[in-house]
Amino acid sequence: MTDQLRNPRLRDQLTRHWNAQLRPCGDVHLDVRAAPGLRGEEWMAALEAECDRLVALGATRVRRHEPAPPFDGGHILTTDPEGDEFCLD
């Protein structure tokens, strides 16, 4: 299989196939730092405010992930108008 992956055409086909399986909405997932320096409820309130602003501009809110150990803060999963995912965190 290693020799086959040296074939750029086959490698590109496999890469496109696996990217489609892993992220059907697009090839890139961004994490947008919307509340640097904040923690806890202030963190989530700032994320909610930024999410509301982006929804007004055409983004779609998918779901909110609450803070859970071992992480300090939660995040909000959203999509752009073309369906590409990004997180506010």
Verbal overview:
It is a single chain. The protein has 89 residues and is of the alpha+beta class. It has three helices and four strands; from the N terminus they run ααβαβββ. The protein has a four-stranded mixed β-sheet. A hairpin with a 5-residue loop joins strand 3 and strand 4.
Question: What labels describe this entry?
Answer:
single chain; 20% strand; 89 residues; four-stranded mixed beta sheet; Glyas_Bleomycin-R_OHBP_Dase; Glyoxalase_6; Glyoxalase-like domain-containing protein; 2,3-Dihydroxybiphenyl 1,2-Dioxygenase, domain 1; 3 helices; 4 strands; alpha+beta; 40% helix
**Pairing-aware structural class of the strands and helices?**
alpha+beta
CATH architecture descriptor text = Roll
CATH C-level class: Alpha Beta
Question: What's the Cα radius of gyration?
Answer: 17 Å
Separation of the first and last Cα atoms: 39 Å
What is the number of helices? 3
Work out the number of β strands.
4
User: Which stretches are poorly predicted, pLDDT < 50 over at least 5 residues?
Assistant: none
Could you give the order of the helices and strands? HHEHEEE
Say which CATH homologous superfamily is assigned.
2,3-Dihydroxybiphenyl 1,2-Dioxygenase, domain 1
Q: Quote the beta fraction.
A: 15-25%
The biggest sheet, with number of strands, parallel, antiparallel or mixed sense and barrel status, is: 4 strands, mixed
Summarize the structure.
The chain has 89 residues and is α+β, with helices and mostly antiparallel strands. It is built from three helices and four strands.
